[in-house]
Amino acid sequence: MTDGAWERARSFGSAARLYGEHRPSYPQALLDAVEELSGVALGGARVADVGAGTGIATGLLYTRGADVVGVEPGAGMAAEFRRRNPRVPLVRGDGDRLPFASGSLDLLSYAQSWHWTDPALSGPEALRVLRPGGAVAVWSNDPDVGVEWIAGQQARIEEGFGPGWYVNEHPRSQSGLEFTTRLLRWSRRIPVDVHLAKLGTHSLFLIGRPGTDEFLAEEREHLLRLFPDGSVPEHYVVDLRVARVGQPKRPWT
User: Fold this and answer.
1) What digits encode the pLDDT tens for the residues 120-157?
2) Residue 101: exposed, middle, or buried by beta-carbon count in 10 A (0-12, 13-18, 19+)?
């Protein structure tokens, strides 16, 4: 990971409470798709949610009945995780060095966190800790740029700060895992100020790049012109990628 990426990865601890309050959750259909593609029934499954952050995904897995543990490297995010999920165990660690015995888990999940790992390390680690028949599930809430106002906002951010502001690299081949993809669309309507607070929890805005405060102020005025009732319809595409471990290959037909 480059120095710039490390800076962005470390930035979340200072805004852990805001992250927990304003980052969106995920639709229930996501967990149905995880079970379908992974072949792992979540009820009673041994799951580690890696890069758990404040526990948004971990809490969903726990509610679904998984025997889940969060894995989080950052002190600030870990503290917020414990505040929000007092019944869910948490260990400090990261995807490149998983603190679990070999063959001990049914499922590894990475919600908004795979891109903070080195796939050349996290892939072999996943293969080590998963039992035969286990699976890796990687997912993210991506802004739906097929919606006109969201595409416009993305363009304004890139114009002001350059491409690549939205850090979310999908699994790459050097992980040693073969992924199947499923896309799930969903939306929520929230106040303009909540949307901007959510935007402010992304690493670009947390690392103090010059001009970010001015951008958010201008964006508020722009959005209020678009949505004079003060509420914003956020649209997301959940990009889910699942890789099974130790499954026999299907014969050619």
Assistant:
1) 899 999 999 999 999 999 999 999 999 999 999 999 99
2) exposed
Class of 3-143+167-189+235-244 in CATH: alpha beta
Q: What is the mean pLDDT of residues 188-196?
A: 96
Angstrom distance (rounded) from CA 219 to CA 198: 13
Q: Identity (one letter) of the amino acid at 158? A: E
Report CA-CA distances (Å) from 130 to 108, 232, 245: 8, 41, 7
DSSP annotation of 168 reads -
> What's the pLDDT tens digit per position in 69-119?
999 999 999 999 999 999 999 999 999 999 999 999 999 999 999 988 888
* C-alpha 33: how far from chain center: 16
Query: How much is the pTM?
Result: 0.86
Question: Left, alpha or beta for 87 (phi > 0: left; psi -120 to 50: alpha)?
Answer: alpha
In the chain the first and final C-alpha atoms are separated, in Å, by: 42
Residue whose C-alpha is closest to residue 50's, from 134, 132, 139? 139
> What residue type is 184 in one-letter code?
L
Compute the CA torsion angle 147, 151, 157, 163 (nearest 10 deg).
130
Across the chain, the runs of DSSP E, i.e. the strands, are 46-50, 67-71, 90-91, 105-111, 130-143, 180-191, 231-244
> CA-to-CA distance for 70 and 51, rounded, in angstroms?
8
